[in-house]
Design brief:
Blueprint lengths: L1 E3 L2 E3 L14 E8 L8 E4 L2 E4 L1 H12 L7 E8 L3 E8 L28 H20 L12 E5 L2 H13 L13
Antiparallel strand pairs: 1-2, 3-7, 3-8, 4-5, 6-7
């Protein structure tokens, strides 16, 4: 562990050899703050979204309206976390999409905005938290853990295995590492 601003912090688990703006597919898991059951319940192997879960779903499917180089793959909301596959497709960089809330440019060249996984996750977390907090009539409440787990998907077989895991996750909820009831 190293210190940052006088406090110990855990080193990043990100691949230091990889630029997360590179084209490819990424398996992402994001947990709620303190793994709170925030998004609904699993009933008979099916996820039943509550109003907060529906907000997260809406924000997920809205991301392509803000980022022209994002690809949305498999996506599953669970009671206290989400799993998704996010793709980066930089062949669409010259298309203009940005509407509504503007993404933050994460590239040093302001003329071509290259967004990657970190920006996509930041947007999903901040857009959904803002809307959830509006429903709760509170401001600034953190609904997500600070960090998230990522895995760079390296081939089609791995993509298919992860996609199937995501889709079938509600059916295996009682065996899930995030299940604690």
């Amino acid at each position: 562990m190293t210190k940052f601003q006088g406090k110990y912090r855990i080193e990043s688990a990100r691949a230091k050899w990889w630029d997360y703006k590179n084209e490819g597919h990424y398996f992402i898991t994001i947990c709620t703050k303190d793994r709170a059951y925030l998004f609904g319940d699993i009933k008979d192997g099916e996820m039943i979204l509550n109003e907060f879960g529906k907000i997260v779903s809406d924000c997920w499917f809205d991301l392509p309206n803000h980022y022209n180089n994002i690809f949305l793959g498999a996506f599953q909301i669970m009671p206290n976390h989400i799993h998704c596959i996010i793709g980066v497709d930089n062949s669409k960089l010259n298309d203009t999409v940005e509407t509504g809330l503007k993404p933050v440019c994460t590239d040093e060249n302001p003329e071509i905005k290259i967004h990657g996984v970190f920006e996509f996750i930041r947007a999903l977390k901040s857009f959904s938290s803002r809307k959830i907090n509006e429903k709760r009539n509170v401001k600034g409440v953190t609904n997500w853990q600070e960090r998230f787990h990522d895995h760079i998907i390296r081939n089609e077989a791995e993509y298919n295995r992860i996609r199937d895991y995501i889709i079938n996750n509600p059916k295996k909820w009682n065996d899930d590492c995030f299940f604690d009831k």
